[in-house]
Amino acid sequence: MKNHVWRPLYVVLALVAAILVFRYFYVPRDFGSGKYGFMYSFHRQADEEQWQNMPVKYRNTGREQMHESCRECHEEEVAGRSKELHGIIPCEDCHGPALNHPDDPETLPLDRSRDLCLRCHTSLPYITSDRQRIPGIDAREHNPGSECVECHNPHNPRLEDM
Amino acid sequence: MNRRDFLKGAIVVIAGASVPLSALEFFDPREVLAVNPGIHWAFLVDTYKCVGCGFCVKACKIENDVPLEAQVTRTWVERYVYASDGHQYVDSPDGALQGFPEPRIDMGLGEFKEIEPGNVGKAFFVPKLCNHCDTPPCTQVCPVGATYKNDEGVVLVDRSWCIGCGYCIMACPYGARYFHPVYKVADKCTLCYHRITKGLQPACVEACPFGARQICNIRDSNDPVTRIIMKERVGVLKEEFGTRPQAFYIGLTAEVR
Fold this sequence. Notes:
The complex is a heterodimer of chains A (162) and B (257). Chain A is mainly alpha-helical and 162 residues long. Chain A is built from 7 helices and 2 strands, in the order αβαβααααα. Chain A has helices at 3-26, 37-41, 46-52, 68-71, 75-79, 91-95, 114-121, and strands at residues 31-33, 42-44. The longest helix of chain A has 24 residues, at 3-26. By secondary structure, chain B is an alpha+beta fold. Chain B has a domain at 137-187: Alpha-Beta Plaits. Chain B contains 8 helices and 12 strands. Chain B has helices spanning 3-17, 29-34, 55-63, 137-141, 167-171, 193-196, 203-207, 224-231, and strands at 41-46, 76-83, 88-91, 105-108, 111-113, 120-128, 147-149, 155-157, 178-179, 186-187, 213-217, 247-250. In chain B, a hairpin with a 2-residue loop joins strand 4 (105-108) and strand 5 (111-113). Chain B is globular, with a radius of gyration of 23 Å. The N and C termini of chain B lie far apart (63 Å). The chains are: A mainly alpha (162), B alpha+beta (257).
């Protein structure tokens, strides 16, 4: 067959070779797929480590550990909590992430806003949800303008204990 | 009977007799899982326990550097209200970052719908997050191999490799992905991969005072949360899409999708 018929084929082959060479140098060595196969998990292995090394901000003060790490310094507040009421709320939900407290930050912010309490204590008539077990108020009628903590103890909200 | 019929019959009988009894047994999923050890993370949401406080959304945003004021979030809480006139309402103001401080329904575009307490039939909250599907459509469509499901079953995004094209955001049937306003790449729930690999629980699980959100290794049949998924009537979202979600829900209705 004549030369001019083959020539485009050589051009295409050269292009494919050039792309493969570029790809060889450009794609990181650790690209590969795990047990979910090429379709779902073709990725750079080093990225998993990068996600693992993200900083942890919230310390473990959930219901399981029952605020052990906070108790070391804040014995009075932790001991004074009503176990079955606000005692189920992790300290960091209201006080913010502890990070490396007390080194960084030295103090955690105190959120005294009504909005914080209204997350749970807005009266919603939802009998098919556990929301019904939480006492609720109408924020427009229940002492508007004043902070909840002026009358209620956030660590132990039971009125008869006040 | 001629010889041909005899041979035919003999082949059928031998083939039938050679089927082992074990092929007719039913599999116990726990036994199958027990011979495949390792970690496979799964999530369990109990919608009965959720009260819509939104502490999970707040904790997630702070833990994972998602700007609080941005209208994107890795996890959110939806409120479903069924009025007694047959209407159904769903809302999630700011993804429930501040919870649901108002009884009225946010209809969007600045419109609100007041529902009389007496007219509320069924109403509940549903926390949502990435389902970490076993066959995730979002990783299938990625043109550069930036998003993937790792061997522990967590779907992640490679921030240095993502080109921000947004195919995965369109491909996710659950709306669990979004464009990160700071890093300018696709972003999504990582199940707090930096926490679960250190033995901690995800920030949202930690933050929930009511235990509505839980995480487990579904390969570990002794895990109490795994036992709930195995034994109780749990559902998944949009099963018909064939994505095989690994986030299981207790207390779904047909309207929750």
